[in-house]
Amino acid sequence: MNPITLIWLQFAFCVVVIGFAGVRLSRYGDAIATLTGLSRNWVGMILLATVTSLPELVTGLSAVTVAAAPDIAVGDVLGSCVFNLTILALIDVFYRRGTMYEHAGTGHIVSAGFGVILLAAVGLAMLLTTQGMMPSIGHVSFASVVIFGLYLAAMRALYLTEQRSTSPIGSATPPGITLKTALMGYGIASAVIVVAGIWLPMIGVELARVMGWSNSFVGTLFVAFATSVPELATTWGAVRIGAIDMAIGNLLGSNLFDVLILAIDDFAYLSGPIFAKIAPVHAVSALTACLMSGAVIVALAYRPASRVWHTASWASLALLALYLLNAAVQFMHGK
Description:
Elements: H1 3-36, H2 40-52, H3 54-65, H4 70-94, H5 100-103, H6 108-130, E1 136-137, E2 140-141, H7 142-164, H8 179-211, H9 215-227, H10 229-240, H11 244-268, H12 282-302, H13 314-334
Antiparallel strand pairs: 1-2
């Protein structure tokens, strides 16, 4: 069999496995929300987001240690942030009960706002590093320490926001599912996603190597898409059961955790501050993700009810346009 064909078959098989496990993960997550009294927003932001971001974590650590390719690690994180926000637009396109933003809780504004702050901090760190104005602590950039602090502050603020929230909890408990069964099923589905999610980027990197693309392009588009398949699968599974808040919470929470992964990668990269070893084009992804997060915040506050040309709200079309713009820039740089 042709090696390229074999790689594509492996890629397709891995995507199918992650897709199936992702749907099961969202169902068990919804059951946990109902049985424990946690809101879907919190389950999506903490339980689902952490598990679906593990492939980015493992891929990033492998890239900065084994492969010594910081561009892959940074491109994966920032590309995943952009792609996660694009998934929101895709949800809106296929959600036929009105626009997605009409049914979403306003508590997501806080997590999207912290996403803007963290992504802007990454962009500022890149700019200051290129100007030689970013201090470091040993081999770690001071910006990574700040990112850790901002992430902890975000989790604290989101917890307090959730405590004050009066949003409804999950739907009726599925028949025959106990908390023990839900937790066990959640654990099994999580393990499948982690294993497959670790394997999938390896397939993607090998295929991209054969294509002759640059590391920044590979990380931002191909590897980022590969490691975002769990988010896509679990989000789609949540939408299918009507858990819009869980779906949005998963994506916005994944973005927060992804930026934290960038700081973790910096600690693991022993050759110096990671921001000093990457291509400047990554700043485009950081700024694009900021713009996309800002559009989500406006949409959640404004709650548009109409669709443009019967496709999606103006906010979702803006998200798609920004994704395509970033993809074009990365492609032109990576040729």
